[in-house]
RNA sequence: GGACCCGUGGUGUAGCGGUUAACAUGUGGCCCUGUCAAGGCCAAGAGCGCGGGUUCGAAUCCCGUCGGGUCCGCCA
């Protein structure tokens, strides 16, 4: 044994004990004849004192530098009252070194472990094994472990079985771009890495494993974002003989209890608020609204049906809408600031931004468009938006999707600027009644919004043939503080309904057979009604950890170009490897 | 594919047409028995991501390129 205790373990009760510690030199305070070393491991920090009387040990301390790995035998003693360190768990004691040896020296590290952050993320990722020594990353990875452990224990208690599914699976052109793995044995053929174990978990339902889950690694070859990595982890789940409400109830209990266990200082409003997809878009411009604050979109369309203002009039005439946000207390914004907001809205697709200011001193409303309005329209707008003196009104007129995108951006921007979102609230919510399909302009066809196995709502079945865009799906998203934290659905278990949907999606029987033949066949052998959900573990842990990127809760993440800076993956391979795989590079 | 931001000793920053390229921290040496971001003294360490251009003169301006980030597209 290299150690008798960890560096976070010793307390007053250990005083007088002889102990052996091993760890890294966190900091060194060299007073000449007396040297203090903070020895660190992942459990904590213990102060070790080297007196020159114990000459051999003292010499080791003298030669040691940051991040040297040391083993120290010593005696635990109380610190003098004035030398107690309240910031350390071990702060009431110290270890008087009797014997010490360097297990391994360290070069000067490119990042300083004892001091948090500040440096370019590039350097942290290149030397991730050093970055991971730091408290922040340890805290995040420990939290992640606790979250996953809680999920496993909870679902085990609920009768779920964790079943592994293959990583090498069949590629299907639906959805995200697949990562492909060439087959050596079958020239010209490829496996795909799973975007999620979707089909496999449904087949497990057919197989009678009526409560399945998996902490599943998923792969999507799409461009990265702060909350998107090419490989990520989902709590993949599926249940038989359930409806939407059963899934929702179970997940709600899971997250309420999880948060109580791992982040007890956070406030979780319950029950989780529920919004329909249509309502979420109408009120917040997003299907994943942050409900920690209001700042809702206000519809002005009906007030302006007869407006002489061309921009509004045309938008309404073309089936669009006019909506706005009332930003409290921002009436003092300058033209330059408003111009910047306009540019910001344009990123969201808006062609422009109409603004109005209700002066704080109660004077006339100033605006970019007031002179174009008809009689009484401005006062109607101010009244509808409940604008108070000192408020800024921002208005977008366009097609509903554009209005929603632009105002959603502005809503989130102002929530940040005005600090409207309480960082210690976890606002889980459900967004329900997603459309089953949406019209794809480019390809001129209907696409599945969720995936092609999602069941339509019974009440909307009659619209399948006549007005498919209006059919709602038995699909639901779990939203947390403005992030999509998970999505799921009740699946189609009847062959005839599946056929109807394939017809709608333009998937011919031949194509269906080639791509999903195994699924269709399986469903002919007694598929139970089933459904599930897949919460995104990285995103949820990110939010629980108060981080703003999922890289901070992953041990070895990739850059925006999907590169691992530490190992330099991806990398070229030997000609011989390519040859074995029957691959010629173009 | 596109927009924007960033790139200066090991690390973090300053410098924004003429500086011996500044500061902090870390690093090396010396001194120091109660520190915990220990302290004091001394020293070394970058030619400014890379390549071109403009200029008498470029870290500073321009063009390109590489790398990192945020976002749009994309993500059933």
TrEMBL record:
Enzyme class (EC, first level): ligase
Key words, A-Z: Aminoacyl-tRNA synthetase, ATP-binding, Cytoplasm, Ligase, Nucleotide-binding, Protein biosynthesis
Enzyme nomenclature, EC number: 6.1.1.23
Any GO MF annotation of the entry: aspartate-tRNA ligase activity
Keyword Ligase: yes
The keyword Nucleotide-binding is annotated on this UniProt entry: yes
Catalytic activity: tRNA(Asx) + L-aspartate + ATP = L-aspartyl-tRNA(Asx) + AMP + diphosphate
Region feature (Aspartate): 198-201
Stretch forming the signal peptide: none
UniProt binding sites for ATP: 220-222, 229, 484, 536-539
Compartments, record wording: Cytoplasm
Record-annotated Aminoacyl-transfer RNA synthetases class-II family profile domain positions: 143-557
Matching InterPro entries: Aa-tRNA-synt_II, aa-tRNA-synth_II, aa-tRNA-synth_II/BPL/LPL, Asp-tRNA-ligase_1, Asp-tRNA-ligase_1_N, Asp/Asn-tRNA-synth_IIb, AspRS_core, GAD-like_sf
Gene3D superfamilies: Bira Bifunctional Protein, Domain 2, GAD-like domain, Nucleic acid-binding proteins
Annotated site (Important for tRNA non-discrimination): 31
Binding site for L-aspartate: 174, 220, 450, 491
Similarity remark: Belongs to the class-II aminoacyl-tRNA synthetase family. Type 1 subfamily.
Protein's job: Aspartyl-tRNA synthetase with relaxed tRNA specificity since it is able to aspartylate not only its cognate tRNA(Asp) but also tRNA(Asn). Reaction proceeds in two steps: L-aspartate is first activated by ATP to form Asp-AMP and then transferred to the acceptor end of tRNA(Asp/Asn).
The protein's assembly and partners: Homodimer.
Protein name: Aspartate--tRNA(Asp/Asn) ligase
């Amino acid at each position: 044994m290299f150690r008798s205790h960890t560096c976070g373990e010793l307390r007053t009760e250990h005083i007088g004990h002889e102990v052996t510690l091993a760890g890294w030199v966190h900091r060194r305070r060299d007073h000449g004849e007396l040297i203090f070393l903070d020895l660190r491991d992942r459990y904590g920090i213990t102060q070790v004192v080297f007196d020159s009387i114990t000459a051999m040990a003292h010499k080791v301390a003298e030669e040691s530098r940051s991040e040297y790995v040391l083993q120290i035998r010593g005696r635990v003693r109380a610190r003098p009252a004035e030398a107690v360190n309240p910031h350390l768990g071990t702060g009431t004691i110290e270890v008087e070194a009797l014997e010490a040896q360097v297990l391994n020296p360290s070069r000067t590290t490119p990042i300083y472990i004892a001091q948090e952050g500040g440096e370019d993320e590039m350097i942290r990722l290149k030397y991730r094994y050093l970055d991971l020594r730091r408290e922040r990353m340890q805290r995040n990875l420990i939290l992640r472990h606790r979250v996953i452990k809680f999920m496993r224990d909870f679902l085990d208690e609920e009768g779920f079985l964790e079943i592994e599914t293959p990583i090498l699976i069949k590629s299907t052109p639906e959805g995200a771009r697949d990562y492909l793995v060439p087959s050596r044995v079958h020239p010209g053929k490829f496996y795909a890495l799973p975007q999620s174990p979707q089909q496999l978990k449904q087949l497990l339902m057919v197989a009678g494993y009526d409560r399945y889950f998996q902490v599943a690694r998923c792969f999507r070859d799409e461009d990265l974002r702060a909350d998107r990595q090419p490989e990520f982890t989902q709590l993949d789940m599926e249940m038989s003989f359930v409806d939407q409400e059963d899934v929702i109830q179970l997940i709600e209990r899971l997250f309420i209890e999880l948060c109580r266990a791992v982040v007890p200082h956070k406030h979780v409003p319950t029950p989780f608020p529920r919004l329909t997809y249509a309502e979420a878009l109408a009120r917040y411009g997003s299907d994943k609204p942050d409900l920690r604050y209001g700042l809702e979109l206000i519809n002005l369309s009906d007030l302006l049906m007869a407006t002489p203002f061309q921009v509004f009039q045309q938008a309404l005439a073309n089936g669009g809408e006019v909506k706005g946000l009332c930003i409290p207390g921002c009436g003092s914004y300058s033209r330059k600031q408003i111009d910047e907001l306009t540019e910001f809205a344009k990123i969201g697709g808006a062609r422009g931004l109409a603004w109005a200011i209700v002066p704080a001193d109660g004077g006339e409303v100033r605006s970019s468009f007031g002179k174009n309005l008809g009689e009484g329209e401005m006062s109607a707008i101010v009244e509808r938006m409940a604008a108070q003196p000192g408020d800024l009104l921002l208005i977008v007129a366009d097609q509903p999707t554009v209005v929603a995108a632009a105002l959603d951006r502005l809503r989130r921007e102002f929530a940040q600027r005005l600090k409207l979102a309480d960082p210690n609230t976890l606002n889980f919510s459900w967004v329900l009644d997603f459309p089953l399909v949406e019209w794809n302009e480019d390809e001129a066809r209907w696409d599945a919004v969720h995936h092609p196995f999602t069941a339509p709502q019974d009440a909307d079945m009659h619209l399948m043939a006549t007005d498919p865009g209006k059919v709602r799906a038995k699909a639901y998203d779990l939203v947390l503080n403005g992030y999509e934290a998970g999505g799921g659905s009740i699946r189609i278990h009847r062959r005839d309904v599946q056929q109807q949907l394939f017809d709608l999606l333009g998937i011919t029987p031949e194509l269906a057979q080639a791509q999903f033949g195994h699924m269709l066949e399986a469903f002919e052998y007694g598929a139970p009604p089933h459904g599930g959900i897949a919460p995104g573990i990285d995103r949820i842990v990110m939010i629980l950890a108060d981080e703003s990127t999922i890289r901070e809760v992953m041990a070895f993440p990739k850059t925006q170009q999907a590169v691992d800076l530490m190992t330099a993956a991806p990398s070229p391979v030997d000609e011989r490897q390519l040859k074995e795989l029957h691959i010629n590079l173009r």
